[in-house]
Specification:
The chain is of the alpha+beta class and 61 residues long. Helices cover 11% and strands 13% of the residues. The protein is rod-shaped.
Length: 61
């Protein structure tokens, strides 16, 4: 197993990891109830997907 001869500085380590930062998830607005939902998923608030009622939600009428 390879072992480094000298220690790498924190700056060098952090430069290598600069692209690993977390990014926020993309959301879209539900066309039925205007709540934020993840794309390509059934709305958790109203149970609609692609303009159709797919699932009976708890609070839906």
């Amino acid at each position: 197993m390879a072992v480094p001869r000298n220690r790498h500085s924190n700056a060098r380590k952090n430069k290598r990891r600069s692209h690993l930062a977390k990014t926020s998830k993309n959301t879209q607005v539900c066309s039925n109830c205007n709540k934020e939902t993840l794309p390509h998923r059934v709305c958790g608030a109203c149970g609609h997907y692609a303009g159709k009622s797919v699932v009976w939600a708890k609070g839906a009428e």
